[in-house]
Amino acid sequence: MVGIGPKQPPSRKGSMHDLPQNLLQQIKDFEDVFTVDRQLLKKIVAHFVKELEKGLSVEGGNIPMNVTWVMGFPDGNEQGTFLALDMGGTNLRVCEITLTDKKGAFDITQSKYRMPEELKTGTAEELWEYIADCLQQFIESHHEEENLTKLPLGFTFSYPATQEYIDHGILQRWTKGFDIDGVEGQDVVPPLEAILQKRGLPIKVAALINDTTGTMIASAYTDPEMKIGCIFGTGVNAAYMENVGSVPKIAHLNLDPELPIAINCEYGAFDNERVQAFEKMTAGLYLGEIFRLALVDLVDNKPGLIFNGQDVSKLRKPYILDASFLAKIEEDPYENLSETYDLFVRELGIHPTEPELELSRRLAELIGTRAARLSACGVAAICTKKNIESCHVGADGSVFTKYPHFKARGAQALREILDWKPEEKDKVVIMAAEDGSGVGAALIAALTLKRVKAGNLAGIRDMEEMKTLL
């Protein structure tokens, strides 16, 4: 990706000269609707910068800009053994990470546990007991007969939470299919720690983190040029390092304004006044639905243009298609788009003609390209706000890792927004991240203990207990 301008993926435009005029016109209409040009990208970024600043103010704004109490990047010399707990929507992962004496190196042991569906709507006690079960199983299988000292735990809790302290967090609302009574509005750390204590497990939660912040910190551990962490997956988000003096909403704490502090933007909420349109145009959850709605619109409002005489009842089902449907269309290597044809037959029971396949391919390209270009706006806004001229950005998430051409299209958008000369190399490079919810969580626990040792106790609640971990 580093080079003089990213190589752009081939477009199907050259395959369209045989298309009927009415379909060619429709493709042109789609191009007009879905294309985000340089001027519009710049306009979005300028608005984005203002929204980031508003989120840091006392009044706040649409973008939460959550203060994480992660106060600094790792220097690569962190050492020790830490547990990491990653509570996702489908699995629970427990890792033991040893940061070695070799700079930027670590050893990792991990186990995955399935999250039972019934837990998601069960009781709070069942949830914490299940998590404690997994931690206990992990420790018993990896440390049998050992007399363990207390292990610090980094807990990746990727649900919207507000944190006045790094070792605590209040759940704002459940997402990812969870709906457990009595947890929203509550601190999630004490009930878990109470069960761990009751079982005699030698574990103390040293840091509660979000996966985006973890992505940034884990990536910075192995690459000192990393300045931003991003998730481009089911949702979109970013984290970056701010300085305390630029966060008016914590000014009352009278901290040194030069101190660094990580901000978890939660910027899927950008342009909330437009019903989170930004996230809906960029996140994996919605890309297939945009494609479906565009086709349904043609079926209903331009009768006879596509799928004439075919049963389109499956196409009418909301969210029947996800981003992987578009990815498969874009990956189809055949000139006659035979894989796309098979996909329509298999998933939707529709037998498209060759011109309809060409239209579908171009529509998928346009939706995928717009998502990548808009995704670059959040990164560009952070770089603009912080006057970052060059850096690496650690990115994770299914859209980033699996959607074809996403990286190249995003890189091209950054070139346009940030006005690099044609002969210049990419200065801001988005690259695959390290394991944020595992290694990142352990590192943040390590950085927190480092702060305790140095006497920088801002945003740490259980100070005395933390000292027992040193």
UniProtKB/TrEMBL annotation:
Naturally occurring in which organism (per UniProt): Penicillium chermesinum
Keyword tags: ATP-binding, Glycolysis, Kinase, Nucleotide-binding, Transferase
Protein's recorded name: Phosphotransferase
Residues in Hexokinase C-terminal domain copies: 272-447
One Gene Ontology biological process: glucose metabolic process
Reactions this protein catalyses: a D-hexose + ATP = a D-hexose 6-phosphate + ADP + H(+); D-fructose + ATP = D-fructose 6-phosphate + ADP + H(+)
Entry keyword Cell inner membrane: no
Any Pfam family the entry gives: Hexokinase_1
Endpoints of the signal sequence: none
Record has Cell wall biogenesis/degradation as a keyword: no
GO CC annotations, alphabetized: cytosol; mitochondrion
SUPFAM superfamilies xref list: Actin-like ATPase domain
EC number: 2.7.1.-
Main enzyme class: transferase
The organism's place on the tree of life at top rank: Eukaryota
Family, as annotated: Belongs to the hexokinase family.
InterPro entries referenced in this protein's UniProt entry, alphabetically: ATPase_NBD, Hexokinase, Hexokinase_BS, Hexokinase_C, Hexokinase_N
Occurrences of domain Hexokinase N-terminal (ranges): 27-221
GO molecular function ontology, one term from the record: glucokinase activity
Functional pathway: Carbohydrate degradation; glycolysis; D-glyceraldehyde 3-phosphate and glycerone phosphate from D-glucose: step 1/4; Carbohydrate metabolism; hexose metabolism
